[in-house]
Amino acid sequence: MSNDKKSQSGITIIEFSLVLLGALILMFAAFEFGRYVFSMQMLNEMSRKAARLAVVCSISDRDDIADLPEVSENRPVGFVATNLSIDYVDSTGAAVNVDNFSTLSEDDQNFVMSQVRFVRAEITGYQFQFFPLLSFIGTAGAISTPSFPTILPVESLGIVRPNTGETAGVVEDC
Hints:
The protein is an alpha+beta fold.
C-alpha cells in the first residue's frame, strides 16, 4: 500500500507540471494577443494623427511628420519612420507628385496645391515581434501587420491667412 502512495505522488507531480505548463502557455498567449491588439491600435492612431498633421502642415514638411512627438510618442517596438508614408492625392484618388515641392517656383507650388484634395497617411510594412517564448507563431517570431490608411480632406496645408497673419491651424512643429 505504501508503494501505491509513492507512485501516486510521482504522478501528481507530473500532472501538476503538465497543467502548469499549459496554464503558463495560455497566459503568455493571452498577454501576447493583448499586446498585439494594443500595437494595432497604436498603429491606427499613428496613421490618424499623421494624416491630421499633414492636412494642416506644409507639403514640404511631410517627411518630418513621422518624427513629430504627436505621431511617434506611442509607437510600437520596431516601428521606423519609413513604415509611415504620406501621399497627397487628387479628387480621383491618384497621387499628386509633390517631390521637391520646396524647390518649385511659387506658380508651380500653387498649381500642385490646387490639385491636392486629400491626404493619405498609411502604415505599411510593419512587422510585429512576438515575445521570444512564443516565437514559434511566425517566422522568427514576427508577423506582418495589415496596412492602416487614413484619408482626410485637405485643410490649410500650412498656408498663412493673408488678412490676419495667423496660420490656419498649423501645429508649431511643422
